[in-house]
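[step 3/7] fold_predict: job queued, chain A
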Amino acid sequence: MKKSSTLLNGLFLSLLTISGVYAQTQPVSALNPKSKTDITAAKTAAKTATVENIESDVAEALTLIESSHVNGKKINYNDLFKSSIDSMLHTLDPHSNYFDAKEFEQFRTDQSSKYYGIGATIGDLSDADGNVQATYIKATFENAPAHRAGLRYGDKIVDVNGTSMLGKSFVDVRNFLRGPRGTVAKLTVERYGTGKRETVDIVRDAVPQPSIAESYMIRPGVGYIAMTGGFNQTTYAEFAQAMQTLKAQGMQQLVLDLRNNGGGLVSQAYRVANTFLGRGQTIFTQKGRIDGSADTYRAENAAPDTTPVVMLVNRNTASASEILAGALQDHDRALIVGENTFGKGLVQNPFVLEYGSMLLLTIAKYETPSGRLIQRDYSDGSLYNYYNSQSLEPGAETKAVPKGPESKTDTGRKVYGGGGINPDIAVKSQTITTTKARFQQKLNNPIFAYVLDLSYGRNKTFDAYKVDRPISFEYDIKAQDFPVTDALFQDFKKFAVAKYKFTPAQIDREREFIERSLRTEFVTAAYGSTTSYQVFNEYDSQLQKAIELLPQAKQLAIQGARANALKQKTDSNR
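[step 4/7] structure written:
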């Protein structure tokens, strides 16, 4: 047999030994029919499957593929191995996965809350016919290599390490900018303000990918924390710092945004929950087979934070985020607002294999404090159905669909398991049609081009919008920052019609989108891409509703505290 086949079999056996999952197979070859005696013997052998049988079957199958399949000489063994193992794992559950060496390295990078590159937000600019002209720097991150090198909003990326970037999309350019830590990206940029070209050597370094995208005082007395970047190694430290800063600014109520947070390290979610729950209150229970995988995790905080909390969730809120939401909901510590969460309640543990690969294997299930299972149904074994089933009734805005058995919170409110976390107040997210989204995407080109001109003083009528300076970080926008007046909108309309072939009617129909995007672009130029999210929040109906519901969250927290105190008193008298 070929060496590659032997290698593949060895890797299969490593996996089977770790997982303990042994498939029973019965080899059949139409090209080489066996006698009745052989078939009987095969059936008998199949009843007592062994590692040797499996190795033999895999070896035989791979040999036939190599020798007889039409593409047998072009096999990518890495892809074949990965798809084979993933298919096996997904018969068990949807979240066990195999990572080859490259994917494993990316997995570790993601959990470290950083990547390696120059630390800049980039975007391309197309002409009226949709042809990409060039990619530009839109923002740099504070203290990142690109910031230290003096790159600024509007710098056109001409080439990277001698390869022209003109005409390439920002996705292609991004791949040239990223690379191993310590390597050099030699950039030639053209300054938008002067047209002069400069060459800068940027040493790639670690660029933070924070869990908290933004935190600021969204209203007087109301703090907002966007914990949308997953639960990574720095999550709790970021959260603690954000809470301290907001309280120093007068925060009395909090909106904690977990929308689109796909989870991550459960230990970090535990620490965030521990901030708000008192000593002895259950945060979650883990139930599994192997040693150390079954336990109840309780809060250890003798002086929990009492700030009223509204927590925003949606269909992409998953895993560790759902553990946090479920814990605060079951103890009536936070009002959950938004859409039903995804429903991932399975615990994965990494098992490092040979050749730098890794198996992420489900070893346990999570339960919320009231005993609810978070995990959604996977009984049909269909990954497509699993990831695409909807959790809210079409058009539902105030009522979530209960899933699974009923449980009760500390104050006796009904909650349900088996399908994620049902919000206390369901608020549907804003959606637009695919056609409308594609049209708005086209508008981003004249918006970017227009703001470039104003930012560098090429439109003297609006000289107050000039941003010919480096980014000012750690800034919270104010109402008077870059207002999109009617005069500015009308001037943009003339620009888009003349330069990008839009009609006045098309521009008028998208006025809200254009006003929001123009202001976002100006804020990005002046204060960076992170601060620009504050503009979008002004138009976010779910967030605005969450702010309205803060008084209800306060009353819920008071009732939850009373229920917990009564429970502690009852327990102490037993």
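[step 5/7] annotate
Confidence is low (pLDDT under 50) at residues 1-36, 391-399.
Residues 3-89 form one domain.
exit 0
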